[in-house]
């Protein structure tokens, strides 16, 4: 004999609970650290960048490569607010990026330059201290705190013993490290490296690659422009290839290396029909 529990409807079958009652709420996808969408830059009648789009995720290393004049540094300058864009958008962590360099620093971005941009008459530690002198990064910090932070960055790059040396007296590889320390002293969440391996020997390039990987592993995103292909292939998670201001390929290093359009752009080899 079947017994129906008190209060139950013998004809009802409640079945499984609604999915909305049991399924966990999906976390919204995090915004990329940097999103460039449809970026176009013109200098008079010259279109330097034409509808360039790419993203850099948190802790990701993305490289911009391409022949001379492809528009790589123009991308950097647009991101940093040094050139005006004709159209397109640039976002940092899901919000519109500032159009002035000082605002970019306040939002956690730092950049190195092709020409280093160091103050030759100043010491290595004095150069590293420059971003901490005032403003949103250094304002409110004591002299001891600023000195400790700058010294730690020099030590991170293996040049703490050169702290009191004028940078004009340092070999070029060490000057490059001072420039990188000056960028890292702000503890950026986005680091832009403009030809960081340029002018370096093999050992210094290997050391630089280790630093880039360590920076990314700490959660800082890295966007770099570089001509040294082996260095790029060894450190980049993804590569964006520019030619005549347009993106012609993008993907993992192996995918980009095998793309016939990339071979054509770099070597002038016509792809097979």
Give your account of this protein's structure.
The protein has 273 residues and is an alpha/beta fold. It folds into 2 domains: 141 residues, 3-Layer(aba) Sandwich (Rossmann fold), CATH 3.40.50.300; 60 residues, no CATH class. The chain has a 6-stranded mixed sheet with strand order 6-7-8-3-9-10, sandwiched between helices. A 4-stranded antiparallel sheet has the order 2-1-4-5, with helices on one face. A hairpin with a 2-residue loop joins strand 4 and strand 5.
Annotate the secondary structure layout.
Layout lengths: L18 H4 L11 E10 L2 E11 L4 E5 L6 H8 L7 E6 L2 E2 L4 H6 L2 E3 L12 H6 L5 H4 L4 H14 L15 H13 L5 E5 L7 H16 L3 E5 L3 H7 L2 E6 L2 E6 L1 H5 L2 H8 L6
Parallel strand pairs: 3-8, 3-9, 6-7, 7-8
Antiparallel strand pairs: 1-2, 1-4, 4-5, 9-10
Helix pairs in contact: 6-7
Q: Regions with pLDDT < 50 over 5+ consecutive residues?
A: 1-12
Number of strands: 10
Shape: globular
User: Strands across the major sheet, in which order?
Assistant: 6-7-8-3-9-10
How much of the sequence lies in strands comes to 15-25%
Q: Cα-atom Rg, whole angstroms? A: 25 Å
What portion of residues is helical? 25-40%
Q: Which CATH first-tier class of the largest domain would you pick?
A: Alpha Beta
Q: Mean pLDDT, nearest integer? A: 84
- H/E order of the elements? HEEEHEEHEHHHHEHEHEEHH
